[in-house]
Specification:
The complex is a heterodimer of chains A (136) and B (150). Chain A is an alpha+beta fold and 136 residues long. Chain A is built from 2 helices and 8 strands, in the order ααββββββββ. The longest helix of chain A has 13 residues. The termini of chain A are far apart. With 150 residues, chain B is mainly beta. The radius of gyration of chain B is 19 Å and the shape is elongated. The chains are: A alpha+beta (136), B mainly beta (150). At the A-B interface, helix 2, strand 1, strand 2 and strand 5 of A face helix 1, strand 1, strand 2 and strand 5 of B. Strand 1 of chain A pairs antiparallel with strand 5 of chain B, so a sheet runs across the interface.
Chain lengths: 136, 150
């Protein structure tokens, strides 16, 4: 009798309520809009990440993968109730595969007014050289 | 109580997220959202994205408008309509070759319909980290009042 009750309880707890499922469901990350362009010196990436401050930005290079991550923090009054929302996540994330001619050791980044700018220089020895065509 | 269990709980935004999840659950099963939208609303993905939240004292509008000089924004309010227009110019490097150009560039204008009890005389705006936050006070009569029992 005692055992049966206990088992019952265990079974019930393994079935999560909708509220618990919601609480444990991981947050969907937003992919920020980006501009990517290349010059003779390197590649520049610009990403719109409004609401992300420097201390909430995570920029990482892992091998040849560049990862951008940032969390949104907005100032607000204590008990606020949402009326309308275009933005429903607090996490931005995107990643890119870099190529060998890029010098990952010299990546520079700047964050201003929610715009992240990342410059990835090309290795000096691999910058494009103009090939002279000899006319003879 | 369950709200506190959410590891991503960040107050208002987690509430916005729950709102979305509840809508997801409501409309899951391939049903298209055919709900009623505000006549002045813009299609999703428009620049800038907007969130609106309310407390008993104020309504706050968050405009996700990165890379803008707040001095160039034109913000006005008429009764309960908040209008924000401006321009975002993304500099284009003519000597570069572009692989992606996803960021918004050009003029924008959004009109946000606020609850009817807002007080257009009490508006405050500030810009930080690419978010313009406009807080509009609400009329005292709209606030919930404690009723004293004698």
């Amino acid at each position: 009798m005692h055992m049966a009750t206990q088992q019952d309880v265990t079974q019930r707890s393994s079935e999560s309520t909708p509220q618990e499922r919601r609480a444990t469901r991981s947050e969907a990350a937003m992919r920020p809009p980006v501009d990517v362009f290349e010059t003779a010196d390197g590649i520049t990436l610009q990403a719109d990440m409004p609401g992300v401050s420097k201390d909430r930005l995570n920029l990482r290079v892992d091998g040849t993968t560049l990862l951008l991550e940032g969390t949104v923090q907005i100032a607000m009054a204590g008990q606020m109730e949402p009326l309308y929302a275009d933005v429903r996540s607090t996490l931005y994330r995107c990643s890119f595969v870099l190529s060998n001619e890029l010098d990952t050791a010299r990546i520079a980044a700047n964050l201003k007014d929610g715009v992240l700018s990342v410059t990835i220089p090309k290795r000096a020895e691999l910058r494009p050289r103009r090939i002279e065509v000899l006319s003879n | 109580m369950f709200e506190r269990m959410n590891p991503y709980d960040d107050g208002l935004l987690s509430q916005f997220r729950r709102l979305e999840q509840e809508m997801d659950e409501l409309f899951s099963g391939g049903t298209m959202w055919t709900g009623t939208r505000n006549i002045r609303s813009l299609p999703s993905g428009s620049f800038p994205a907007v969130n609106v939240g309310q407390t008993a004292d104020a309504v706050t509008v968050y405009l996700f408008a990165p890379g803008i000089d707040p001095k160039t924004l034109n913000t006005s309010i008429q009764q309960n309509l908040l209008s924000i227009s401006g321009q975002r110019q993304v500099a284009v490097d003519k000597n570069a070759s572009y692989y992606r150009q996803e960021r918004f560039t050009g003029d924008f204008h959004r009109v946000i319909s606020l609850p009817d009890d807002v007080d257009p005389e009490r508006v405050e705006a500030r810009y930080a980290d690419g978010i313009l936050q406009v807080t509009v006070g609400r009329r005292a009569s709209a606030k919930p009042r404690q009723i004293e029992i004698r």
